[in-house]
Structure formats: C-alpha cells, structure tokens
Specification:
The structure holds 2 protein chains of 2 kinds.
Chain A lengths: L1 H10 L1 H7 L9 H12 L1 H4 L15 H6 L12 H7 L18 H12 L30 H12 L10 H13 L5 H9 L5 H11 L1 H14 L17 H12 L4 H10 L8 H6 L16 H21 L18 H12 L16 E4 L2 H27 L1 H10 L14 H4 L8 E14 L1 E5 L4 E6 L2 E7 L6 E6 L9 E9 L3 E6 L2 E3 L1 E5 L9 E11 L5 H17 L8 H15 L1 H23 L1 E4 L10 E4 L7 E5 L18 H9 L6 H14 L20 H13 L4 H9 L2 H4 L6 H6 L16 H12 L20 H4 L30 H4 L19 H9 L1 H17 L3 H13 L5 H20 L1 H8 L12 H15 L2 H4 L2
Antiparallel strand pairs in A: 1-12, 2-7, 2-11, 3-4, 4-5, 5-6, 6-10, 7-8, 8-9, 13-14
Helix pairs in contact in A: 1-2, 3-7, 8-26, 9-10, 9-11, 12-13, 14-24, 16-17, 18-23, 19-22, 21-22, 22-23, 25-26, 25-27, 30-34, 33-34, 34-35, 34-38, 35-36, 35-38, 36-37, 36-38, 37-38
Chain B lengths: L5 H4 L4 H10 L6 H7 L1 H5 L1 H8 L15 E7 L25 H4 L23 E4 L4 E4 L4 H5 L4 E8 L5 H10 L9 H9 L9 E6 L27 E3 L17 H22 L2 H24 L6 H7 L9 H13 L4 E6 L8 H25 L6 E6 L3 E6 L10 E4 L3 E7 L6 E3 L1 E2 L6 E3 L2 E2 H11 L8 E4 L2 E4 L15
Parallel strand pairs in B: 1-7, 1-8, 4-12, 4-15, 5-6, 5-7
Antiparallel strand pairs in B: 2-3, 4-11, 8-11, 9-10, 13-14, 16-17
Helix pairs in contact in B: 3-11, 10-11, 13-14
The chains are: A alpha+beta, B alpha/beta.
C-alpha cells in the first residue's frame, strides 16, 4: 500500500501535492469536514428520509450524538470513527458496494474533528454574509480598494506576488471588452495612453459604462440565465415573439436599475400596483422557458414541466441552489424538501398560460405593443367596448318584454336572416375587389384530405389544409392573391360545424366557426388547392354578396336551431330554444340593440386590426383563486401527492409577514435583506463575467455539493457592499474594474502556474478566450462593419444552408437577412433553440433551452474553422483590409494599421517580419493567380472596392484573418 | 504537414506535460487534441481531473468492441410489422383490444379519444430466417433476414416516454429531460478517439426517400450536455460542407492556408514566450488539428474511389448523398478510420396511418444497406470490434389508429415494448431475448429497460456503467441514471 502510494507520488507529483496537504492545525467543519460527509455520508445519512439508513443522520449534530455515532472529544467512543477505520468489509463505512472510499487523510480529519469536539457549522452560504475587517497585508501600497486587500492577503499566504499593472493598451482593451463587449478604437487607446491625468483610467470607466453597449454586454449574460430564445423550443420549435423582453433587459442595465427592482419586476411585475408596460414586459423572464405543442402530449405533464423549469431557474439564478434535485425526492445534500419544491411551484402554476404553445408566435398570455400612432386609440378601445357592451346589456333588459312578445308571434318566413344567397353564376363573378361571404355546414371524417370545399372559379376558393380551413381570394386579373387560414386546428372529425369566411376589400378576410370569429393568419401568393377536399361531408354552401357582420354570422350558424325553436309552441319551448330566439331578436330585429352590436363589432375589429400591427410579447398573468400545487411523487406528473400552497424554502429565511401569497411575495422574499444568498450569488456571477471564474466556481450551486468560495471574506464583503449600495450594479462594476487586482498584467510565471494554476487566487490579470458573441462582434467592430443599431426582432446573418432544414419539422427555413442586419451585434441573432447559430454554438454559446449561469469554455478545432472560413469572418477580414488599404497603399503601412486595429498595439519588429512574409508570399500567389484573388474578395454580400489592387487586397485580407485568429485577438 | 507533437511542448512546464499525458485518455484526437484541451486542463478541468481521480482508467475491463455504429430509426418503427411475430392476431382482426391486455395504461392524446381499439394484425409475410429460425418480416426485410445469425434481437425493450421528444431524449441520454449527455458523448469522453484528425463522435442524418412520418431531431440529441463541449457529436452533412466551415474560402488553396497558419503559429509562439500562458499552446494545437481535418475530410467523404463491388453490396442508393445507404457506407469509412461512435438518424418511421403504404418504403431504404454494412465490416475484419445497434425510441400499438382494413392501418406510439437489435463485437448472433404477450402489448418475459440497453452497450465497450460517472451540479451523473440497471448477459458471447 505504502509503496503503491509512493509510486503515484512519483508519477503525478503535482496532483498528489494538491490532493494530500498536511492536516490543518484546527479543523473547521465547513472547510474540512462537511465536504467529506456530504460526498460520502449524507446520501444515506442526510436530509432525505427515503434514502436514510439505520435511522441515522450525520447532518445534524444532536442526532449523530444521540445515536452515539459521534461522542464529542472521544473518537474511541464514536461509532463513526470505528466504522470508517474498520477493516471488516461488513462494518466499513462507506460500504464498499457504494464504491465510495475515504482517503487516509479524510479519515484522519474526521477522527481529529471528533477529538476536537465535533463542532458543526451551518453550511457557509446559509449564514448571512458579513463585512469582515480588511486583512492586514505586507504591501499595503498595492491596495487600491478593499478588493485588493482581500486578494493580496491570500496571495501573501500562498507566497505569491501580484503581477505588475498591465500596460495601458492592454488595460484599455480589457476594460472596453468588459464594459461594452467590444474592442476600443485605436484612437481611444492612444488617447488613453497619452492621458496624463491621474483620473485617466477612472474617467475611461465612467465613459464606457455610459454607452448603450454596456447594457447589451451585461444583458447578454443575463439572457443566458433567463434562457431567452426566439422559438418555443420543443417539437416544431416555432417562432415565439418575445424580443421586447430582450430589449427590456438591455435597457434595464443601461438605466442601471437597482438589482432588487430588476428582480421583482421579472418575477412579478404584473402583480405590482398599476404595472407599467415595461413592468409587464419584464415578466417575460418566466415566459422564456421551453414549451411544446406536440400532438399527443399530456396537458398535466407539460404544465408540470413548465413549473419545474421555473422553480429550477429561479433557484439557480437567485439562490444558487440546485432545487431541481428536490423535484423527485428531498434534496440529499441541501435542506430543501420535495414539499419545498412544489410549494415554490405553486407560485408559478397559478398562471393563465395553457399546456400547449400552439406553434404560434403569441401563446397567451401576451401583451400587444402597438405602433406609436395607434397607442392612444388602443388604450381607449377597451373602455369603449366595455361601455357599448354595458349599454347593450341595459338595452336588452329594457326591451326584454318586447323580445318575448316577438318570439311568441314571429313566423319562420319573417326571420329574414340575411341577404339572399347568390346563384352559382353570380358566385363566379366574385374576386378580391368585391365584398362577399361564403358559408358551409360540414362534417369532417378521420380520413380528411386537403383540398377545395367550395369555389367560384379563379376568384376565390374555400379550402381545407390539415385541420385548418382557409379562404383564398385572387385579384380580378389573377396576378395577386391572398389566403387567410385559421390559426388553430378547427375541423373536428365527426362533428357538424358551420364555417364562414367573409371578405371585405377594405377590411380583409375573416373566419368564423359556428358563428364565432376565429383567429387567422394571412399569407400572400399561395397556389390554388390541388383538387377537391376528401373525407368531408359538405352541406348547404351559401355565398352572399356582402361581408356578413359578426351578429349575422352567429344567426347564420344558428339558423337550423332557430327554425327548430319556432317549430315548437312558445309555451313549450326549452330555455335554450327561447334564448336563441331572444338572442336573435337583439342581434337582428331590435334596432338600438343591433346598432350597439354593430358598434361593438366595429370597435373589436379595430382593436384586432391594431393588434395585428402590434409587436407581441409574452408575459405572466395570474389566474384568479388561490395558488396551489401538488407534490408529484418522484416528479411524475401522474403520481399526484399532497396538495401544497405557495411557500418559500422552509429552511431559509422567513417570508416577510406582509408578503402576499403570490409571485410578488416570492419576489419580495428573494430580495429581502435577510436572504443570505441572492447578493452573494449575483456578485459571484458579475465577478465571473470579469475574471472568467467566480469566487465560487459552481455559480449555480452554493449548496453543500458546490464549491466553497476561494475567498469567502472577499465574496461576503462584496455581497454586503452590493446590497448596502442599493443594489447598484454600475457601482459594483466600477469597484471591481478599478481594483489593482483587475488591472494586473496577465503574465504567467512557472511559480504561479504551479501554485495558482487556474488563477483562482488572482495572482495575475484575467486572460481567457472570449465568448462566442464577443468573437464575432470583435471581428465586425475592427473591420468597421459593425452596426450599432439596437433592439428589434432577431436578425439572421450568414448561416450555411440546411441547418434548420435538416433537423426541424416541415417548413423550418432559415431566410438570411441582407444589408445592415448581417452586421448587427450578435446579441440580436435570432435564437432558434433547436438550431442556434452554428458559428456561435461551436464557441459554447448555449442552446438556451435551459437556464445557464456559467458557460463552458472549451477549445476545439471546429472553432478555428469558423474564424478562418465562415463568410462572416472572411468578409470582416476583407473589409478591414479594404479600409486600411485605402489609407496605406504600401504593404508595410497597411500591416501596421491592421495590427493596431486588431491588437490595439503596434507589432514588434520580429512580429512585423513574420506578418510581412505571409503578406509577400500570398501577394505573389494572388498575382500569379488573379482569379483566386477575385474569388476570395467576392466572399460576403458587401461590394468590394474595385479600384484597389486585387492581389494586394486579397493578401492583406489573409493577413487580417491571420491576426484575427491570433490567440491574443481571441482572448480577452 | 507539420509534426506538432514533441517540439512544441518542449517549452511547457513539467506539470502541464504530466497533465497532458493524463489527458490523453479524454477528448478527441488522443494525445493531440488532448492538447487542445490543455487550457481546460490547467484551467477548469484540472479540478475535473482531480474530481475524477477515484475513477480508474478506462476501460474498466477488456472491451469486446471498440467502436459503435448506432442506427436510430426516428419515429419508432412498428415491432409488430418487423421482428415481433404475432400469428394469433390474424384471428383477432378488427376485434377490440381486451381491457385485460391494455390494463388501463395511458395512451397518447392522439388515440385516447378513440371509441374503440381494433386489433390490426400485420399485413406482411413472416417466415423463418437464418439457422436460428427467427420469425420475421421477410417480405420487407429480405436482406436483413440473411444476417439474422449475426444479430441478437431484444423483443422486450421498454421505456417510460410516450411521445417523440421525451422518448428520443431518453434513449439517447438516459433521461427524458433535456440537458444530459448522450451515449456518443459519454463514449467520446470515456474512450476518446483513435484518429487524431477526426472527431471521436460523428452524426449523420439520413433522409427517408419517401416523405411523411417525419419527426423533429435537433442538435441537443448529440450535444455533450454536462460533459465538456469537445465531446459533442460533430454532424457531417450530406450537402454543402461535410463539416461546417471545413472548406477554405474560395480562392484560398491548402498551400496558401498552410502559409497563413505557419505565420500564425510563429506569432502565437512569440506571445507564449512573452506571457507564458499555456492556453496559447492549446491554441496552436487547435489550429493544427483544424488544418489536419481539412486535409483528411475530403479523402474521407470522397466515395468515388470505392470499387464497384461496394455499390453492388450497398446498392446504387449509396451513391446518393444523404440516403441511408450512403450514410451507412460513410459510417463504415469513419469506423475504419478509428472514429469511436457514428450515430445515424433515419427519419420517417412515425406511422400513425398508412403503415401499408409507408413501411415498405422505409424498409427498402434500410434493408440492403444494413445487411451490406454487416458483410462489409466482416470482410474488413472490423465486425468483431464494432458494435451495431438498431432501433427506434419506442414501439407501436397493436390496435389501429384511425381506419382499419385488411391492407392498411395506422399505429400509435407504444412505449411498453419494442424490438431493437445488436450485432458485432461481443454480441451472440442468432439470439432472441425477451418476450411479449400475444398482442405485443406487454412484456411477459425478460424485460429490458432502455437503461439496461445502455448498461449493455457500455459493458461491450469495457465500461462498468455504475463506475462510469461524471460530476456536475454536485451530483455524480451516470448514463444509466439512479435506478438499477442490468447488463443483458444472455445476448453476449
């Protein structure tokens, strides 16, 4: 054993050194003991009663002592110690079958801990953060602000020195990338280099923080956490319109919204008193979860999945807890019970959102954001509609007697429902220049096949597509046409249904089913149906030369019922029969009521029309009634357990007493000063944005299985500072980026690689590969082609063909944009979850199907292929070369300028030589083969300046690409 | 081409080189892209390596197979019309499925509203095949019938999920919930690649020759989930660039690219000397590997030099990019070159209606090529070290969805039993395992859950599924999850 151990030492000295340091002088429970117990013991002797063996808990001191597993101060009288040291396989803990094994050091720690009295501590992150006194350091002159004191103390303990401050060019580049996500311009850098003012750096910080790009850059990280995407995510993965939420996030960072308000508005903006439009848009956060419309899926299962995602996301983002583990059973490591999980789910289940997204862009609940010109009218309309509706109700009450009298005396021939239907020859004269309506009573069967239901020749046809129906109308010359199709499946096999489509040259096409209007979508340039529909019984097709009104649509549909009612003696009529006649009277006979109905119809039409012109965004909406959920046994939707009401996690801080029992209460609980987690978790993510890794590496898990903070005093100090500053994000970032820690050069020494291999102690400046979006934005920015236009629908830049098409269901086609949208910032890329932009995904951009608070950062050859060959990058290199060549006809000057734009520094003489060699050799090639130069310069949609010498431009394009692919350019 | 192994690492600190050796176990490209993961090694994955210290080197025991070709039939083929022979159903034609068989089990929303559940016996001809005498649909699968003595059939596969998205996610990743790692990624992570110029896990998407019954498949099925990103499947495409962005821009020849990269490497070396960041070395390796891929992929994908007898074996369809036959031929070429895991998705098996019309076309797509793959691998001596897996994400119902006639019917999703087969290294050919009732509705003997299948596949590759874990979100994840899983020993040699 000993020999084998030594061998390992020889082979892997570095790792063994890290794994087996000497025992600490005094054992600390959270630092030394808890990780061992959590990894090896809590699974069977922890929080989860279902897994618990021998009725023994080791996570609670009293229990462990009562069972004599631990006798404080007496390792020899503690069965825990005896069992871990046992040589008897049946006695040994953890049992060999668990495949867990304690190292000798771990055994020693546990033994010594018991000997020292077996003190327990609450898990570190559940204790409130406190501002520790600033530690004493040996070189206080290095300290610029409190961050540095905490960092330096740790460095000194490890026997390391901080790196010197980075040079001004490096610093400016790093700062600009961290505050705006974009490189600075060479002019900005030179100005900073020459700025002699003592405040030069601070004013640069302030300036870049004020740009709109600040919000875009901060927002991008948040959108990963919010799992923002432009599609529903599952099955069809159809378009979801929710980009106003993305723009809201950017704006919120730009106006430096307090982080607590930022939180409350996203969780419960709709429940605030008189919520503003922005506060409603903010609730899009929890509408970003993925949803389905797959036929055959079960509603309860889908709803359980949506709620599960919301609890999980909330818990990762604001609490840093892996509550998802408690969906099936009590959390095995952290004090979150299954009941806790579903109690939080209760908040999110109380929504008006349905189980299916319908594959439409506006799955309710949504709000409409009308164009400015409509905004006033759009806000007035609901009241006007309500007033007219009240008036109509009043009129009906007032004239009820007259209605009764009419119903008792009217004859079938007097009904006169609408204009007379047209004869067949007249039907053929209709087209999109005329108002008309087509009605049919149908009964579909299971073997329904697409085709025409009724047609008037070339001018119009009523058609079936799948289970939807549509009216297609053509212009008199047949050159243009449009089709309006029901948005949802309408045809129900086996059921008699009344379909009506109306056309008005001014108001367009509308569809009704059984007398009620149904939502529809308009498409242009549609081919006619290929033959008659099959598997459907069509009766009583009628065509009218008017666009039938809403009221008449109902009467037309009701006609058979009305005639039946009239066939019955007035006194013997059933209530429904009586009511259908009375309804008819007020719709069609009583003039004041009819006028009001028409008025309501028109107002509603107007509202619908404005909606059609509006931007849609998905929001949260509370359902009336008390929120509740059921515990789902093992997380299964169909194993419904105990009913629970909304509540926060029971082992964390208490819910504020005045908090309402809805999402607003939950939000208040999250942002409460007593919450030990939110400030820490948030500060840690911000730290991660700048330094690449958080002070707690597991940004999503501050629980017992997560990493302990590498510098807890610093994390806690920052957390308290952030909260006490009024949750001021910009202030916190200012503090971090002005620290000496941040300003260090990223110089690595062999000593630092050995003692601080991952730079967790911050012995040097941050240096790591930029995120996907930054790499693309960088190339666009230095080439001068980046558009800074903000907001709006997702953009579709270059993408290889057949990306969406191969994986998606029928109809998923990527239609690439042209012009400015090819060069917008990547945060605006249209994010299709089943097929995110392939050039970004390869750089670890997440699919956004689930919450991501920490991106992976891997390096694969596929990434090199993107930055070398993707037309987006090739074109950027060419445009950079083009811009530079216009200023510098000579190759040497051009190379220097390209380098200054890409690297923000002049090249060293050794570097210039290498680049010049590439340029000269390739220019010779391109001169010998001018067609190659022409081919390369044609990549991308922007036009090349043909007055420039092609071989030189082509070779400088390759040079620009070479520099853009440098490790230095790809790294922050 | 440049040799990039030894001299570039001369500058590396001792620790990094040690780590590198360890890292050879992981990632693609063995030692070389082990180097590509170097940054992660000295950065994030240093702790990962330590966290996995208790994990012994893989394989855990001698592997029976080295590579996998997994043929996934997207949509769920009907076991009743292919391999699960149910002669008694002929008498049950159009009779109601007895409640005693259905046992109140859940149905999808597509048929739960049906007034009745009439039994639809298979309309196809079943005869006995091979020395083993397996009863199967020899009408539609005459070629596969010739291979049955090389194949082990499991008729008792079962899963929980009843709809495509969760079911396909479950059989690929072990969980219905998105975000876990798929089998291919697990094996890439565990075993790495044997070819330093190609990824260890390749995905090919085969288009059915006749449309219809198509289900969505997306990149998440071959994403690496919580495993490091380099273990995600690389999708080879049948049109455009075979690997995204593999081709140089127009006008740039390989020589010119080489020259550009030479300069790039030299510049990166200077930066490394200045800053000493080991990531810079990774970057150099990353670009070298990309270049080698650019050089090797055209040769890989150029099937024009395949001799005529290859196409006699696979069929002329194999010349058509994107066809199943073409994908299978490509799979053989990839396996030959040491690619660890080739995943083929063939769409179009979701036959809710018109089984009579659609199933023959689907079988025609796969039959000859599947047989050819087995024969071809045998001829090349690769069959014994390659595991072939065939199957869908679930089975289909004995009762008809929609109209039923003697010649046509539809079938809804059925998770409670379906047939899959394995062939190749370590698999006992001519075996049939597991049994379903007369209605192919419930398993009556030797049930095999999909996690048992996963355990078996890992076992054949020399991996103990219980010891093969990865720590993420504070948990030790396994492909087979937390429920107990058993290796199906009866089908192994």
């Amino acid at each position: 054993m000993r020999i084998a151990f030594l061998l390992v030492l020889v082979v892997c000295c570095v790792r063994v050194q890290a794994a087996e340091p000497p025992l600490p002088e005094k054992i600390e429970f959270n630092r030394d003991v808890r990780p061992i117990l959590s990894d090896n013991c809590f699974f069977c002797h922890g929080n989860d009663p279902h897994q618990r063996k021998a009725d023994l808990r080791l996570d609670l001191r009293d229990d462990a002592v009562a069972k004599q597993a631990i006798t404080p101060g007496k390792p020899d009288a503690s069965s825990l110690v005896a069992r871990i040291l046992s040589t008897d396989k049946d006695e040994l803990m953890p049992p060999p079958a668990s495949r867990k094994q304690l190292t000798p050091r771990q055994k020693e720690i546990l033994k010594q801990w018991v000997a020292e009295g077996a003190g327990y501590e609450k898990h570190w992150s559940f204790e409130p953060p406190r501002r520790a006194a600033l530690p004493m350091v040996k070189t206080p002159s290095w300290v610029r602000n409190p961050i540095d004191a905490f960092v330096l103390a740790e460095l000194e303990r490890a026997g390391l020195q901080p790196a010197p401050e980075a040079d001004r060019r490096t610093l400016a580049r790093r700062l600009s990338l961290d505050l705006t996500g974009l490189p600075p311009t060479p002019a900005e850098v030179e100005a900073f280099v020459n700025d002699k003012s003592p405040e030069a750096y601070e004013s640069l910080v302030a300036r870049w923080m004020k740009t709109s790009q600040w919000g875009e850059h901060r927002g991008r990280y948040w959108l990963d956490a919010a799992r923002y995407g432009d599609t529903h995510g599952i099955h069809h993965d159809a378009y979801r319109e929710i980009w106003p939420y993305r723009d809201w996030v950017i704006a919120a960072f730009n106006r430096n919204q307090r982080f607590d308000e930022f939180t409350v508005e996203q969780i419960a903006g709709d429940l605030l008193p008189n919520p503003t439009r922005e506060q409603l848009i903010a609730t899009g956060f929890h509408r970003c979860n993925i949803t389905t419309a797959e036929g055959g899926t079960i509603a309860d299962e889908n709803l359980a999945m949506y709620a599960n995602d919301r609890v999980t996301t909330t818990s990762w983002v604001w609490l840093g807890l892996t509550a998802n583990c408690a969906a099936c059973h009590d959390h095995k490591f952290d004090p979150i019970t299954q009941r806790d999980f579903y109690s939080m789910a209760a908040y999110f289940r109380n929504t008006t959102q349905g189980a299916m997204d319908g594959n439409v862009k506006d799955t309710k609940p949504v709000i409409y954001l009308p164009p400015a010109a409509d905004e006033k009218r759009f806000t007035e309309l609901p009241k006007l509609i309500a007033d007219a509706t009240t008036a109509l109700t009043a009129r009906r009450r007032e004239a009820l007697k007259a209605a009764d009298a009419w119903a008792s005396s009217v004859k079938p021939s007097e009904l006169g429902i609408t204009a007379k239907p047209l004869a067949e020859t007249e039907q053929k004269q209709l087209d999109n220049s005329r108002a008309f309506s087509v009605a049919a009573r149908i009964k579909a069967s299971a073997s329904l096949k697409d085709g025409t239901l009724a047609t008037g020749g070339d001018g119009w046809e009523l058609v079936v597509q799948g289970k939807k129906f549509a009216l297609r109308v053509a212009s008199p010359d047949g050159k243009t046409n449009s089709l309006v199709i029901s948005r949802r499946d309408i045809l129900a096999p086996g059921k008699t249904q009344h379909l009506l489509a109306t056309h008005d040259p001014k108001r367009g096409l509308r569809l009704y089913v059984d007398g009620l209007e149904t939502e529809s979508d308009r498409k242009e340039k549609q081919p006619p149906a290929k033959g008659a529909a099959d598997g459907i019984d069509v009766q009583d097709v009628r065509v009218y030369a008017v666009a039938i009104t809403k009221g008449d649509a109902r009467s037309l549909s009701d006609e058979p019922a009305l005639l039946t009612a009239l066939g019955v003696e007035p006194a013997k009529r059933a209530a429904t029969q009586k009511n259908s006649l009375i309804d008819f009277y007020f719709r069609s006979v009583d003039e004041p009521a009819r006028e009001l109905a028409v008025q309501i119809d028109e107002l509603t039409n107007e509202e619908t029309a404005i909606r059609g012109r509006s931007i849609v965004t998905h929001v949260q909406e509370e359902k009336p009634g008390e929120a509740m959920a059921n515990v789902l046994m093992r997380g299964a939707y169909d194993k419904v357990g105990e009913k629970v009401t909304p509540a926060s996690f029971s082992s964390l801080h208490a819910m504020p007493t005045d908090a309402p029992k809805n999402r607003l209460g939950l939000a208040r609980w999250l942002v409460a000063d007593e919450n030990p987690l939110m400030a820490r978790v948030t500060v840690n993510r911000f730290w991660q944005e700048l330094f690449g890794t958080g002070l707690v590496r597991t940004a999503e898990d501050f629980g017992s299985q997560g990493e302990r903070p590498v510098n807890q005093a610093l994390l806690d100090w920052l957390a308290v500072e952030f909260r006490e500053s009024g949750w001021d994000v910009k202030k916190l970032f200012t503090l971090m980026v002005t620290s000496a820690t941040y300003r260090q050069a990223s110089l690595t020494t062999p000593e630092k690689l050995a003692r601080d291999p991952q730079n967790r102690l911050l012995s040097r400046g941050p240096r790591f590969r930029m995120d996907a979006e930054m790499i693309r934005d960088y190339a666009l920015a230095v080439s001068g082609s980046l558009s800074l236009k903000m907001g709006g629908p997702g953009t579709k830049p270059y993408q290889p063909s057949n990306i969406w098409e191969v994986v998606g269901l029928h109809g998923a086609r990527y239609t690439q944009d042209h012009g400015e949208n090819l060069y917008r910032r990547t945060i605006y890329n249209f994010w299709k979850r089943q097929s995110p932009s392939p050039n970004m995904e390869v750089f670890n951009a997440p699919t956004r199907e689930v919450c991501t608070v920490r991106r992976e950062r891997t390096n694969t050859p596929l990434q090199a292929l993107v930055t070398l060959n993707d037309p987006q990058f090739v074109e950027a290199a060419r445009r950079l070369a083009e811009a530079v060549l216009k200023e510098h006809a000579d190759s040497t000057g051009a190379i220097d300028t390209i380098a200054r734009r890409v690297l923000l520094r002049p090249l060293g003489s050794d570097e210039t030589k290498i680049v010049a060699q590439t340029a000269t050799a390739l220019e010779a090639e391109f001169t010998t083969h001018p067609e190659r130069a022409q081919a390369l310069l044609k990549v991308g949609e922007s036009k090349v300046d043909e007055t420039l010498p092609a071989p030189r431009l082509a070779s400088l394009t390759m040079v620009a690409s070479q520099l853009l692919n440098l490790d230095e350019a790809l790294n922050k | 081409m440049h040799n990039c192994n030894s001299h570039l690492f001369a500058n590396l600190p001792h620790a990094a080189r040690l780590a590198l050796t360890r890292r050879q176990l992981f990632g693609w490209g063995g030692s070389v892209v082990g180097a590509a993961a170097l940054s992660t090694l000295l950065g994030e994955s240093a702790s990962r390596a330590v966290a996995n210290e208790s994990q012994p080197s893989l394989p855990h025991f001698a592997a029976k197979a080295k590579n996998i070709i997994y043929l996934h039939m997207v949509g769920g083929p009907s076991q009743i019309d292919t391999y699960d022979y149910k002669p008694k159903m002929v008498e049950m034609y159009d009779k109601d499925l007895p409640d005693s068989v259905r046992q109140g089990q859940r149905l999808t929303g597509m048929t739960s509203g049906q007034a009745r559940f009439p039994v639809a016996p298979s309309k196809f001809k079943f005869t006995q095949a091979g020395k083993c005498g397996l009863w199967m649909n020899t009408e539609l699968l005459p070629y596969t019938a010739k291979s049955v003595d090389d194949i082990a059939f499991i008729r008792s596969l079962n899963t929980e999920a009843i709809n495509h998205e969760p079911a396909i996610t479950a059989i690929q990743t072990g969980s219905q919930v998105a975000g876990r790692a798929c089998i291919g990624s697990w094996l890439s992570y565990g075993l790495g690649s044997e070819n330093k110029n190609l990824p260890s896990f390749v995905v090919l998407i085969a288009t059915p020759s006749k449309g219809g019954g198509v289900q969505a498949i997306s990149g998440k099925l071959w994403s690496s989930g919580f495993l490091p990103g380099e273990h995600a499947g690389v999708s080879f495409r049948s049109s455009g660039d075979p690997i995204l962005y593999i081709n140089n821009p127009d006008g740039v020849t390989p020589d010119m690219r080489r020259r550009q990269l030479d300069g790039l490497n030299q510049l990166n070396q200077l930066a490394y000397q200045k800053l000493g960041d080991p990531d810079t070395q990774t970057r150099i390796q990353q670009y070298e590997m990309a270049f080698r891929m650019q050089v090797s992929v055209p040769d890989l994908t150029d099937i024009s030099k395949e001799p005529k007898h290859t196409f006699d074996l696979y069929g002329e369809e194999a010349r058509k990019p994107g066809s199943f036959a073409n994908s299978v031929l490509m799979a053989r070429r990839l396996t030959e070159r040491g690619v660890r895991f080739v995943q083929i998705y063939h769409n179009g098996w979701d036959q809710h209606g018109d089984v009579g019309g659609k199933l023959p076309a689907q079988c025609l797509d796969i039959d000859q090529a599947t047989h050819a793959l087995i024969e071809d691998l045998k001829q090349r001596g690769l069959f014994d070290e390659t595991l072939i897996v065939w199957g869908g994400e679930f089975g289909r119902t004995i009762y008809s969805q929609g109209g039923l006639s003697k010649t046509n019917y539809g079938r809804d999703h059925h998770p409670r039993c379906f047939t899959m087969w394995l062939a190749g290294g370590g698999v006992k050919g001519g075996t049939v395992y597991g049994e379903t009732d007369d209605f192919s509705y419930n398993v009556v003997k030797d049930p095999v859950h999909i996690r048992d299948l996963h355990a078996t596949v890992l076992h054949l590759l020399g991996i103990d599924h219980e010891r093969f874990t990865y720590k993420a979100q504070g948990l030790d994840f396994r492909l087979t999850g937390v429920e107990p899983a058993q290796v199906v020993k009866s089908i192994l040699v």
